[in-house]
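> Could you send the Peptidyl-prolyl cis-trans isomerase prediction when you get a chance?

Sure thing. Input:
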Amino acid sequence: MLTSWLLTGALAFSAPAPIPAAQAFKLPTALRCVAHRSLTLSLRPVKGATWTGATVKVGARPFKAVDRVAAKRPVRLHRLPRGRLDLEIKAKTSDGRKAEVERRYQTCVDTRPVIAAPTGTPPTTLQQRDLVTGSVRRARNGDTVTVQYSLVTWSDGKAVDSSWDRGQPFTFPLGAGQVIPGFDQGIKGMKVGGRRQLVIPPDLAYGDEGAGDEIKPGETALFVIDLVAIDPK
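Output:
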């Protein structure tokens, strides 16, 4: 009986408790698309132990092995596959503890859209088409969203505005009325890393007055939009 108890006790204490993922890993938020197919992984310091290494899988396939030395500094994951990324990381410490995390990411499109000049009669209702679907989370009213966009006017196919030209994405609260109605309505439901084309009729765009010298009265607006990030409400 005593021998049995001792064996049971030894087995009970042979496997140290795992380290929670939040205490073990420092990773980018999944609510921002992965730019340039590259992200940085860091292993957080562990009291009383050191990391002996980690393994990274993407889509259940081995992607990178991190040794003891590399585990002490941020690790850059380069040339990740395009599209949706199901990332799995497992790590071990010198005292036998383990940590693991699974997270889904989406790469950014990373290329400026080329918009062909529209032809034919412009539609009279809001039209939307996903060119890249994206993944992770859908944009909802109340979220703060960050987008890249290009705008072409339907009547002459002229490029009149682009966040790509300014070298900085555009951030705004979705559904708060701070942009034209068709922009608000058309981005709703997009997923992180997605690219969507919107054709916005005048009543949901710039109306009978137009905007400045570039957008004529009664103009139909053609946008191509990339959803870069979501900051939930």
